[in-house]
Amino acid sequence: MQTTQELYTYEIITKEQPDMVQKAAECLARTFIGVDVSEKWVQEPMVGELNLRYEDFYQFTKEYLDATVDQGYCAVALDIDNNVLGVLAGDTNAPEIIGEDVFEGSFYDMNVILHVLEDVDKRFMEDYKKRYGKDIENGEFLHLFMLGVIAEHDRHEIIQQLGNRLIEKASAQGLKAVLGEATNPKSLRVMEKYHQMKKYIDSEGNYIVHKYQENDKLNGIPESIADGTYIIIREL
Q1: Dist CA 62 CA 18 (whole Å)
Q2: What angle, 0 to 180 degrees and rounded to 10, lies between the N-to-C axes of helices 185-195 and 155-172?
Q3: Are 67 and 15 in contact (CB under 8 A)?
Q4: How far is it, in rounded angstroms, from Cα 59 to Cα 65?
């Protein structure tokens, strides 16, 4: 029987691999919109609640990868046929708060997700400034933005291998910490278990969380599925 290491190979992709960037965007979009894996429905709760379309989400994902892949923090898991079955994509940009709607048409409801992420990011940035007396700069943190796995088997192993590659690289490059927004308990659990990321506690002793029950567009998400988006962190 093949081991996982033999079933999949892992690499960090670049802009010089446009076909791989496209496959990575497809894998991420499929995971977020929803995919049947071993008879279980896997879907990002906010995307599911807002009924976003695959075509729109793919475009968003592709634009994100095109803009950030040169930073060297997009890792993929490939099968023997060079299909992308897992992606972990991040960047080293300081969080950006736009504060207004940027998506239009059939993708308009993506603004709801954008504002959730901006809410927790803004509170994190304010807490960071309170602690350290300065703003976050580009190149300080590895921001893990999107994780998608469509493989039927060894999903957790893939997540572990993808994260290891990016976190080891961030550590070698002298970044301070790895940061993410965990939008559901599943992603929180795997990042805790495999990458020692924890819910961030601010200087007043509270988690930074956007509660879905308090958001009129997202309060249809059952608390048993997900209660909110949390800032998670691991210092390097």
Answers
A1: 10
A2: 60
A3: no
A4: 10
Strands 84-91, 198-199: pairing is unpaired
DSSP 32-89: HH-EEETTEEE--HHHHHHT--HHHHHHHHHHHHHHHGGGS-EEEEE-TT--EEEEEE
Nearest to 9 by CA among 88, 69, 72, 80: 80
pLDDT tens by residue, 61-89: 999 999 999 999 999 999 999 999 999 99
Instruction: State the amino acid at position 92 in one-letter form.
Output: T
The SS3 assignment for 109 reads coil
Helices 54-68 & 18-33 angle (0-180, nearest 10): 140
Q: Would you state the structure tokens that stand for residue 12, as one six-digit string?
A: 């960090």
41-52 per-position pLDDT tens digit: 778 999 999 999
DSSP 216: T
Q: Which residues pair with 12 in a beta bridge?
A: 75
Q: What domains are defined for the chain? A: 4-235 (3.40.630.30)
Rounded-to-integer distance, Cα 135 and Cα 191, Å: 26
Q: What is the dihedral of CA 117, 118, 121, 126, to 10 degrees?
A: -160
Q: Is the pTM of this model over 0.85?
A: yes
In sequence order, the 6+-apart residues with CB closer than 8 A to the CB of 57 are 29, 32, 33, 47, 107, 110
CA separation (Å) from 231 to 68, 80, 125, 135? 21, 35, 11, 17
What is the reported pLDDT for 3? 54
